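Dear colleagues,

As part of the handover before I leave the project, I'm documenting each prediction I ran so the next person doesn't have to rerun anything. This entry is a single chain, and its sequence is reproduced below.
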Amino acid sequence: MKLFLAVATVIVMGLFQSSLLATLPWIIERTGLPAAFWSVLVAASLILVAVSSPVWGRRTDSHGALPVMRLTMGLVVVCYGLLILAILALSSPLWIAVVAIVTRLVYGVATGGVFPSAQRFALADKPVAQWPETLAYIQASTHAGRVMGPGIVALAAIWSLPLGLVLIVLLGVVLWLMQWYFAAGVAPEPPGNRESAVAPGWSEDWPLYALGFVITLWVGQLQFALGPYIQNLADLDSVTASQWTGTVLMAASVSAVLAGPLGNRWLSPMPRILGGLWLGVFTLGGILLAASSSVLGVGVAVCLITAGLTLAAPWYGSILRARRPDAQGQVSGRLISVHTIGFGSGTLFGGLMLELVPEQAMAAFYLLGPVAGTLALIHHLRVRAGTVPPTV
């Protein structure tokens, strides 16, 4: 039940974000607020996620994961629901803007607590050997939510597009009620997990945190620049390019949902083989993306890179958590903060590459494998040299 609730929580979070982005053209038309307003608002909420995640992570260590997960998920559901209500019920752009600003800022702060609490909640009664597989399920759930959100909206749009947004709000409410209903059947965390833990030092495992940053840096660049890159590569019109981009991203999400759980289930007992696999997948995918001259080649490369992400993130996430089991929440919060900053930085870098060298906007992906491999090697050498504490 713990894994189900954690996975369902992450899926609903993916539904919220992806459905909002998928309906952005309709929201802009409905509210009269420009795209720039919504882009700044989304960016601001991401900054708040990065800032608040370590704070919430420490809270999960001292007070347990379930209370934090229920509190933050409740705030997220209320904020998302109020935003949709304002868009549907208000006619004044000014009042919609006020509600949007308040709800998205609170949403960003609360979101920073949902992911570390869900991860710690799912891992609480699992042996260390099962952590990579469990984290892979949670990682894959993010991609599942991103696919399902636009799908629900598109299906509901046959009758009424706002109906899809309302359905997603109701799904969030149902999940939040389930978190309370099933609480009686969930075993409490061991008392030792509720003790306030000393924050682990960043310097001890900086190569793994750096690895998380650079991977999401490249993924952020990929997601932002993919559509214009495909349009330039194949000389397509904007509508066709959007269709191809959506198809590629959906295929990539499916590859992530399959590769992450299966790969970590089979290979988590062999961490070196798992590490070699994700590094090989990243290297091959990066070279293929940078060198490909066809949309098909780009699509295969994006699927490989996305699969590599769902293999790599549980790998280094498990190592960090196993090294400090008394501070799992803080580790989760730091990783989410690092990933968010990396994704945002990659988005900016992707825009810069499109402006400067649109035909070579993916050239940096030649370096994805070598940079990730270098950081993994540095971590391995530090472990062998005894400069970092052993994994518990």
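The chain has a mean pLDDT of 86. The chain has 13 helices and no strands.

All the best with the project,
I.
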